[in-house]
Every structure is written in C-alpha cells, then in structure tokens.
Amino acid sequence: MVEEVLFVAKQNRNLVLFYVVGCLVFAAIGVFLIFRDDIFYKIVGYFTAGFFGVCCLPMYLKCLLFPITNLILQKNGFYFCSNNFSKLIFVEYDNVSGIELLDISQTKTICFNLKDDSTVVKDFNILQKFIARANEKSYGYEFSISLSGTGENIEKVYRLFKGHTFYIQKTFNEAFADTPKGKECKLEIIKTAIDNLVAYNDTIF
After folding, report:
1. Bigger pLDDT: 2 or 98?
2. What sign results for the dihedral spanned by CA atoms 92, 146, 103, 165?
3. Which of 37, 43, 54, 111 is least enclosed, having the fewest CB within 10 Å?
4. Hey, how many other C-beta atoms are within 10 angstroms of the C-beta on 33?
C-alpha cells in the first residue's frame, strides 16, 4: 500500500536561478578584485570568488538542473533532506523527541531531535555529522530542515508538524492498538493513550 503524501516541498527553479545569478555576480566581483594591486583586495577577491564560484555555484546549478525535494510529509513519518547533496532520509513521528521552529543565521529552520538517531546518522557523511553535532551544541537540536529555495511558507509547514503529525496520530494509533478486536474504542481508552503519551514525553510537555 502506498503511503498517503500530505505535503511536498521542492526547490523552486525561479528562486534557484536567482541564486545562480547572484553567485555569478559575486564570483565576477571576486575575480575583478583579484587583479587589484592592493593585497587586501586580492585576499577578499580570492575568498569571494572561491566561496561563490567554487562552493555555492555548483550546488545551485545542480539544483537548477535537478530540483531537490527537501521535505515529504506522510501520515506516519516524513522524508527530509539535510542539504542539497544528501539523499532523502525517512523519520517516523514516533521517533521524534522534540521539534521547534528557530531562526538560524536569519533563516527560519525546523529543528528536531530523535529518540534513536542511529538510522539517520548512518547515512550522514563526515561533514553532515560535524554540522549535526555543532547544531546540537549551539541550538539544542541535532537535525534541521530548511525550506529556503522552495518558496514554501515554513511556518505553515511547521504547523503541519505540530498539528497533524506525531501527537494526534500517535494517540489514535495507541488507542486503536489497545482496543480488543471486535470491541469499540471508547473515550476511556483514548484518555489512557493520551496520558501514556504525555508521561512518555514529559520532558517535551
């Protein structure tokens, strides 16, 4: 059975094209500065041309030719892409231990932790593992989702996480699992499921 998809965020080609043009402009400025006589301008030129022309431009050209899917929300979990070079990684809502919308480097970012991060971290390269540890140290969250370049309203997406995902779905899943076969799922069973969920996630609530 194919899992129902609730939301998909992909790179917006128009925005990515804007980033490509910006990278080209700044790289050109960097090259221009390299040919100045002043050593300070040369240093700034090498840094600017290297950062925008070598680091950023290939990444955005790749996104322009092959748009990246940053996030897929489903009923029982979500796929996320930690950066433009990584593959989509699936996370079950039951595995989420905390989630928050933060401003990181003036960019709104969905940050979250997992009860068991081994299934996610195993697919990370050395740089991604370093960034995850740095994020956890700086912001208290190991993983993050940025929708910059997609044109999506990240606050709306965050409300989808907080509204539909995890808690409501988890409550009904637990309630129906505790209902004997052939019996009715009554209010008492749902209340017990809620109490158990709150107790299990007491550090969050």
Report:
1. 98
2. negative
3. 37
4. 19
| Start-to-end Cα distance in the chain | 34
User: pTM to 2 decimals?
Assistant: 0.61
Is the Cβ–Cβ distance between 75 and 169 less than 8 Å? Answer: yes
Chain Cα centroid distance, residue 74:
15
Least Cα distance to 34 among 14, 50, 10, 54 occurs for: 50
**Residue whose tokens read 């990278």:** 23
Interhelix angle 167-177/187-200, rounded to 10 degrees, is: 130
Cα separation, 105 vs 109, whole angstroms: 9
Tens digit of each residue's pLDDT (9 = 90 or more) over 97-134: 888 888 887 788 888 888 888 878 887 778 778 888 88
Give every CB contact of residue 6 below 8 A, 6+ residues apart in sequence: 73, 74, 75, 160, 164
Query: How far apart (Å, rounded) are the C-alpha atoms in residues 28 and 44?
Result: 12
Give the CA angle between residues 18, 151, 70 to the nearest 5°. Answer: 100
